[in-house]
Recover the amino acids of this structure.
């Protein structure tokens, strides 16, 4: 059986960041990703990121991704693509499959950075071709450069719904409207403004009731909802659309963490069931770390910083860093994480994160 | 309002974001210790150069010169759509809700490397619409 020092599952921002950080210290790292390209969701983020200017804010996600891949290569990180990790066994050992072959790899430490899945929304007609996740639409336009449709209805006013709608406009589609069941826009006002100035109506207290069409979506029925999200009678409207983009949240992709036997907590503000972890991002299982959306739905910069913490902690645990140096580096990353979770939008996530902490921060002891 | 061109920052929510501070070479934008604090413009330092316009990831900064001429104001907006408008062309001017409120003349389109693919369009607009117009169509 092949033996590696640090096995990272998932080559998105969290996984790559951890891999780079650990490799910088001399750890031999292998990143496994089931996709044909690394970078997770970074390469379809063509917009300029928010965040702190010290840490890549104002840079487009696609450029953040390119830089991370260059850094990974520079520091000798092995990235294995088209390689699915399907199991975690005591040791820890990874069950992997690639090229239709199944094998096992033994790793001293592993990091689960598996990201998240898009939530679906069930309504009559939701299985018609043309109903798709907002992230799927974003992949089509920004990676494959294919327009999923010409007249779009977006469901959900979180940042994903707002950003994808704007990018659909940039790609040449018409966004007929965006519905949000809450009585307010849940994403950032500046993202909403970019849509509004282009004339896209954002209908709060509205949802999609039905998709109509023979072979594919031809029309959408939207309806006003009350404060309990029940449809208000006689408020239905028919829109001629060929695509309905669902941007109704994400759920941590936690299957491997469940399989491994990590302890979980249910934290709705973080997207559901998430593995609890300590200040090193280590789960209740020795040697199994987590980072990124798997530990609660946030964004790329928080994923990068969490990955950093995990990578540093792994380098420390493997003896590549003194505990003083590791402590200093981790404190820095934690400082960035705290800063990114401030303000009215970050507060809930920050509170949720406290609920899944299993130990005091090492620095606080 | 101060004479000449000046940045107008329409950033009203406390989100974690601060690249505008570095985008300004005059040091006219400050945010403070927490990156979630709202940006403040030091008007005396602002030259209205417009480098902050593409520097804001939220596209929430514009430049307005209300004293450009007797009737016209100058307005700089970020514009991330293709095709780009041509200098000297007439375009429809849209307000924050996407409604056509008048016309505008394109003075120039700035799209240097520093813009990082967020072109900035300079427009001549009727003075009374300078604080309404935020987008164009043509």
């Amino acid at each position: 059986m092949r033996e590696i020092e640090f096995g990272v599952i998932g080559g998105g921002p969290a996984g790559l960041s951890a891999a780079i950080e650990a490799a910088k210290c001399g750890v031999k790292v292998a990143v496994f990703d089931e996709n044909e390209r690394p970078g997770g969701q970074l390469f379809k983020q063509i917009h300029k990121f928010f965040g702190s200017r010290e840490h890549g804010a104002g840079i487009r996600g696609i450029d953040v991704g390119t830089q991370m891949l260059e850094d990974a290569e520079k520091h000798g990180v092995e990235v294995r693509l088209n390689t699915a990790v399907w199991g975690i066994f005591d040791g820890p050992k990874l069950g992997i499959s690639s090229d239709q072959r199944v094998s096992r790899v033994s790793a001293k430490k592993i990091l689960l950075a598996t990201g998240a899945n898009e939530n679906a929304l069930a309504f009559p007609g939701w299985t018609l071709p043309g109903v798709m996740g907002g992230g799927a639409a974003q992949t089509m336009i920004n990676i494959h450069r294919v327009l999923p449709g010409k007249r779009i209805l977006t469901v959900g006013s979180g940042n994903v719904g707002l950003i994808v709608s704007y990018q659909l406009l940039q790609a040449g589609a018409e966004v007929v409207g965006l519905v949000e069941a809450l009585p307010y826009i849940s994403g950032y006002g500046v993202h909403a403004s970019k849509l509004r100035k282009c004339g896209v109506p954002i209908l709060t207290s509205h949802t999609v009731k039905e998709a109509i069409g023979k072979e594919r979506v031809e029309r959408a029925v939207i309806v006003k909802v009350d404060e309990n999200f029940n449809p208000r009678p006689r408020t239905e409207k028919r829109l001629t659309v060929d695509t309905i983009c669902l941007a109704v949240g994400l759920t941590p992709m936690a299957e491997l963490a469940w399989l491994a036997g990590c302890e979980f907590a249910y934290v709705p503000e973080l997207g559901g069931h998430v593995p609890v972890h300590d200040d090193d991002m280590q789960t209740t299982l020795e040697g199994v770390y987590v980072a990124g959306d798997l530990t609660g739905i946030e964004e790329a910069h928080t994923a990068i910083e969490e990955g950093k913490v995990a990578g540093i902690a792994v380098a420390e645990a493997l003896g590549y860093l003194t505990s003083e140096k590791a402590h200093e580096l981790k404190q820095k990353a934690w400082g960035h994480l705290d800063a990114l979770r401030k303000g009215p939008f970050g507060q809930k996530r920050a509170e949720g994160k406290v609920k899944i902490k299993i130990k005091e921060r090492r620095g606080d002891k | 309002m101060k004479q000449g061109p000046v940045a107008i920052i329409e950033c009203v929510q406390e989100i974690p974001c601060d690249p505008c501070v570095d985008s300004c070479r005059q040091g006219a934008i400050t945010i403070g210790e927490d990156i979630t604090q709202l940006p403040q413009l030091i008007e005396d330092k602002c030259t209205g150069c417009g480098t902050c316009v593409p520097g804001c990831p939220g596209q929430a900064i514009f430049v307005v010169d209300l004293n450009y001429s007797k009737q016209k104001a100058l307005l700089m907006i970020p514009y991330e759509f293709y095709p780009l408008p041509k200098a000297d062309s007439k375009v429809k001017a849209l307000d924050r809700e996407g409604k056509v409120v008048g016309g505008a003349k394109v003075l120039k389109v700035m799209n240097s490397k520093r813009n990082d693919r967020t072109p900035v369009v300079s427009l001549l607009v009727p003075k009374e619409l300078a604080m309404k117009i935020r987008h164009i169509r043509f």
